[in-house]
């Protein structure tokens, strides 16, 4: 099979290696595709703690595909099942997954790509946000995740204020149901605009979905007294500072909405499958860029640079 290997900062090679064999309780997937995650960007930049070359397929973890081999003791799956899975070397044509980290996709989704991990992540963040009808929600950063959360919050009866840098993203937020959009340009102007829109009380929920210091600072400023700040951005490129004076004075709840328990990941993926199969959510327009495996470097660079019209890159296999 072909697999991508990171050989240095910003460098990949496509190598031919043997197909992995599933062990007991595992399945092998012939992958149809894998989403490209912003969490890949720190290793892609080559910090000191990354060891090159990486293992074949490493960093890819948003896979979907076909079960083509099974180890002993696997129940509830059959050869040929189309599934979403939590796997961890999915920048390759095949990968191994534990059977309990695999979810069968219904026939109604047969024509759709399905990067289960980020879709499940969105559902888990939404659940932990405890958004209710009548609340005012600010979402900072309208990328793939922010767009889905805008749709989910709007459908729950909340009023969404979308804040993002790119005009493209603000237009998308409107299409996903945002009641108000604000360009992410001037810190104090954003605060004053949200204050105006909320009658001076600010927001019941603020979801920070960027993963940088400034949006985190802004999120605290936009959260009302006894409100909830949900950190959905991926903050793994260094330490952060927080305005504890403000957080403490307002008595806000701060939720780090990242999961590490595979069972919770799988719960989110199942909820995403149900939402998409029932028509409550349609993410297809959010998959804006597709690349073959040999152009994984371009996919990673686009995820980093976010050219106009970019939301989510998929690596697909023929």
TrEMBL record:
Pfam families: ADH_N, ADH_zinc_N. Its cofactor is Zn(2+). Residues 145-243 form the Alcohol dehydrogenase-like C-terminal domain. The keyword Protease does not apply. It comes from the Bacteria. GO terms for molecular function: oxidoreductase activity; zinc ion binding. The keyword Zinc applies. Residues 23-106 form the Alcohol dehydrogenase-like N-terminal domain. Gene3D superfamilies: Medium-chain alcohol dehydrogenases, catalytic domain (3.90.180.10), NAD(P)-binding Rossmann-like Domain (3.40.50.720). Keywords: Metal-binding, Oxidoreductase, Zinc. PROSITE patterns: ADH_ZINC. InterPro entries: ADH-like_C (IPR013149), ADH-like_N (IPR013154), ADH_Zn_CS (IPR002328), GroES-like_sf (IPR011032), NAD(P)-bd_dom_sf (IPR036291), Zn_alcohol_dh (IPR050129). Belongs to the zinc-containing alcohol dehydrogenase family. This is Zinc-binding dehydrogenase. It comes from Microvirga makkahensis.
């Amino acid at each position: 099979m072909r697999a991508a290997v990171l050989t240095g900062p910003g460098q990949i090679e496509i190598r031919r290696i043997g197909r992995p064999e599933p062990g007991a309780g595992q399945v092998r997937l012939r992958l149809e595709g894998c989403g490209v995650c912003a969490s890949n960007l720190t290793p892609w930049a080559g910090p000191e703690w990354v060891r090159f070359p990486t293992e074949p397929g490493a960093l890819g973890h948003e896979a979907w595909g076909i079960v083509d081999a099974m180890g002993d003791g696997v129940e509830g799956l059959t050869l040929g099942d189309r599934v979403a899975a939590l796997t961890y070397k999915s920048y390759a044509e095949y990968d191994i997954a534990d059977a309990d980290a695999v979810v069968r996709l219904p026939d109604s989704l047969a024509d759709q790509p399905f990067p289960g991990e980020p879709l499940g992540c969105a559902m888990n963040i939404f659940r932990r946000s405890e958004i209710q009808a009548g609340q005012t929600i600010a979402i900072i950063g309208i990328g793939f995740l922010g767009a889905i959360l805008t749709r989910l919050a709007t459908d729950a009866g909340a009023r969404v204020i979308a804040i993002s840098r790119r005009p493209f993203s603000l237009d998308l937020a409107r299409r996903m149901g945002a009641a108000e959009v604000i360009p992410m340009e001037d810190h104090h102007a954003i605060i004053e605009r949200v204050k105006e829109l909320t009658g001076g009380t600010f927001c019941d929920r603020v979801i920070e979905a960027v993963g940088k210091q400034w949006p985190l600072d802004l999120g605290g400023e936009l959260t009302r007294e006894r409100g909830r700040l949900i950190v959905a951005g991926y903050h793994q490129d260094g330490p952060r500072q927080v305005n504890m004076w403000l957080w403490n004075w307002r008595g806000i709840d701060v939720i780090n909405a990242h999961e590490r328990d595979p069972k919770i990941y799988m719960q989110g993926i199942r909820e995403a499958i149900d939402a998409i199969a029932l028509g409550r959510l349609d993410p297809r327009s959010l998959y804006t860029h597709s690349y073959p495996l040999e152009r994984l470097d371009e996919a990673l660079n686009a995820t980093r640079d976010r050219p106009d019209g970019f939301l989510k890159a998929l690596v697909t296999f023929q």
